[in-house]
Amino acid sequence: MLTDRRILLILSGSVAAYKALDLTRLLRKAGAAVTGVLTAGGARFVTREALAGITGARVHDDLWAAEAEIGHIRLARWPDLVVVAPASADLLAKMAHGLADDLASTILLATRAPVLVAPAMNPAMWEHPATRANLALLQARGVQVVGPGVGAMAEPESGPGRLSEPPEILAAIEAILSPAGRPLAGRHALVTSGPTHEPIDPVRYIANRSSGKQGHAIAAALAALGARVTLVSGPVVVPDPPGVTVLRVESAREMLAACEAALPADIAVMAAAVADWRVAQASTQKLKKAPGAAAPILEMALNPDILATLSRHQRRPGLVIGFAAETEKVVEHAREKRLRKGCDWIVANDVSGGVMGGESNTVHLVTAGGVEDWPELPKAAVAERLAQRIAQALG
Ligand code: CTP
After folding, report:
1. What is the DSSP string of 340-380?
2. Which of 24, 91, 261, 350 is at a distance of 20 to 30 A from 304, taking alpha carbons?
3. Ligand 1 geometric centre to CA of 273 (Å)
4. Can 134 be counted among the known catalytic residues?
């Protein structure tokens, strides 16, 4: 049931927009309060009168009129959940890039509520690399997606792009808003992500190819299940996930200090590619080359192992998960790493391909109980699956 839950329903342009009226009827039957917002495209397919009739509330479609009446910020703050159904390729692109040139996109930029999108578009548009990239970006930020379905389209062609049926969208909404949809509520999760930078001198450092995409997606997925998340991140360019406390660090030693300061935690997911070594004596002045002088030889020192430290910590998180980036004997090395580092699970991945910085990941989950081989999935999907497994393990 969705008794008294507040849903802001945004309809963008699609021939499938009529299904949103049926969705509204189901939502109201389940007890939800629904406020409708139409984009200019949406208004081509559904009238504001029809939407107002079914929601039983005023429909908003004009940024400037909304401004005069209640303001887009108040509309953005009102809902427990924002649902975009149908979500056109255009609106997804605007969301991904933070455009805010009409009421719907402005609300989507201003809201702190969770967002569910139900895409609907022509199969070629759905499969276009631009749409794929926009969706991956949105998912990495915690936006949830239902559908699209595969089947006959309005045009004489078929493929992926059909708006999900209203009962399916309703089920996705209930999953997000019901207590069962937030199984990690009340839990604190600590996540590390990205590379570390180990200084050589004030202008040079040693780094690695980690992008932070996987770790940030895990932080977003844990937050989406209701966890309070502290994300300790090395230097990355991926955006901060919404609803997550982000602590930025540079070196392995700073990362360890930030992690220890963030304890206690129920869950620790150490996805960062921490540098194993640092330069033993980083120079406080820029190293200068002098004519005829030999190239400097850098002496390295071992960095603290953050995963192993937390696994054996006095305030050890209940579930400690490490990653193993391997180029050969992936599972064998991961098994050994799990025991050596004292963590509960290892997410092992083969990094001999282009995983580092790439969009997808093929992982094996190594636990005390055995090994699960997961198929190749987008990093956001790996994150969601891992978050679900964590929720299951914590009961
Ligand atoms: N890790 C860490 N602190 C370090 C090094 C690694 O917390 N100083 C964590 C990583 O975040 C990851 C796991 O340990 O969760 C595995 O890292 P990896 O570099 O694969 O392990 P190593 O111990 O370096 O093993 P190997 O030398 O076999 O690569």
Report:
1. HHT-SEEEEEE-SSS-TTSSEE-EEEEETTEEEEPPPEEHH
2. 350
3. 7
4. no
Binding residues for CTP: 276, 286, 304-307, 323, 337, 341
Looking at domain 6-181, which of 2.60.120.10, 3.30.930.30, 3.30.70.2860, 3.40.50.1950 is its CATH number? 3.40.50.1950
Read off the pTM: 0.71
Q: Going by CA atoms, what residue is nearest to atom 27 of ligand 1?
A: 276
Residues 282-340: tens digit of each pLDDT? 999 999 998 988 999 999 999 999 999 999 999 999 999 999 989 899 999 999 999 99
* pLDDT, tens only, 70-104: 678 889 999 999 999 999 999 999 999 999 999 99
CB 325 near ligand 1, within 6 Å: yes
Beta strands in 178-293 (DSSP E): 188-193, 198-199, 205-206, 228-233, 245-248, 267-270, 277-279
CATH of 188-285+294-393, one of 3.40.30.10, 3.40.525.10, 3.40.50.10300, 3.30.450.40: 3.40.50.10300
Taking the centre of ligand 1 as the mean of its atom positions, its distance from the CA of residue 327, in whole angstroms, is 13
